[in-house]
Write a structure and sequence with these properties.
The chain has 3 helices and no strands. With about 120 residues, it is mainly α.
Length: about 120
């Protein structure tokens, strides 16, 4: 893929990436750069929320690669790659909507039987 602007690799926590994310309003989890001070306070709640969000995002990407074919994209052109990704995401959304509607219909059916007793 060939993108028009250069995006730094966010995986590494260095000064350039931290400044780039700060300009965009992105908060990166992890320790501050440099030697830790004597009186460092770790916010456990923020770390927990970050880890929960990270686990959820990894679960969704793993599901999309395994169940919806996002890991099987072999296209070479940028426009066909983007369309393949979009079709995979649409498939994921339709799957979740169908599952939700089926669940709601089952609740409706079984709630009718429950009120008769």
């Amino acid at each position: 893929m060939h993108f028009s602007r250069r995006i730094p690799c966010i995986r590494y926590r260095n000064r350039i990436n931290l400044a780039y994310c700060k300009d965009l309003g992105i908060r990166l989890a992890g320790p501050a750069l440099g030697r830790p001070g004597k009186d460092t306070v770790i916010d456990k709640r923020t770390e927990y929320i970050d880890s929960v969000d990270r686990i959820e995002a990894r679960r969704i990407f793993g599901l999309s690669k395994h169940s919806h074919g996002l890991g099987l994209i072999m296209t070479k052109r940028e426009d066909t790659t983007r369309s393949s990704i979009v079709l995979s995401i649409i498939s994921m959304n339709l799957d979740s909507l169908l599952r939700l509607s089926l669940f709601q219909k089952l609740i409706l059916i079984f709630s009718r039987y429950n009120c008769c007793y």
